[in-house]
Design brief:
The chain is mostly helical. The protein is built from six helices and no strands.
């Protein structure tokens, strides 16, 4: 994630061509290897309590780090701050719940809706990264008019996906809290 962010922040006119496209491809690679790691662990029976916890934590670090970075970079409009704060709050709350459960000797695995939420968040980030890549690199392959049109489509798709991801994130957080609230209560 840090390399992706490092590739986004420099002024593109002072970097090598394709640096933002490279950031998009590197992010997609990270998301794919995260999925592959979980799939392989389940397939070969290498699922551990530590792995369940760290996989969920790594997902949160990746997605929240990217959302905050995109916001700081100005790739997300200011009104999205509210959505990012909702997502961030849910992630901290659920991570706190997992830590409390871990202190009581329990590991809370990701729910199916939580996995869908992560996929939608990764899709959202990918759309915004694709928008950034096209803004800088798109005119090399598209006409200026076509490039502007594609950038606008990605911007709107990213914003709509962010709204959907936020709703899904909050909803999955509520489900998780209802199911595991007992771990917050003293014995």
């Amino acid at each position: 994630m840090l390399i992706v962010i490092g590739m986004l922040y420099p002024d593109p006119s002072q970097m090598w061509p394709g640096v933002r496209t490279g950031a998009l491809l590197l992010f997609l690679f990270a998301a794919l290897t995260d999925w592959l790691d979980g799939w392989l662990a389940r397939k070969f029976g290498q699922v551990s309590e530590f792995g369940k916890f760290m996989d969920a934590l790594a997902d949160k670090v990746l997605t929240m780090g990217m959302f905050v970075s995109l916001l700081a970079l100005g790739a997300l409009e200011k009104w999205t701050l509210f959505l990012i704060l909702l997502v961030l709050s849910r992630e901290f709350l659920i991570t706190g719940l997992r830590l409390v459960a871990a202190a009581k000797g329990k590991t809370l695995a990701a729910e199916k809706i939580g996995k869908v939420k992560t996929v939608v968040q990764l899709l959202c980030i990918s759309l915004f990264l694709a928008q950034l890549a096209l803004e800088v690199d798109g005119t090399r392959i598209l006409s200026p008019e076509s490039n502007n049109y594609a950038v606008e489509i990605l911007r709107w798709a990213g914003q709509l996906t962010l709204i959907f991801a936020t709703v899904l994130t909050v909803f999955s957080g509520i489900i998780y809290l209802v199911k595991y609230w007992k771990y917050f209560l003293d014995d």
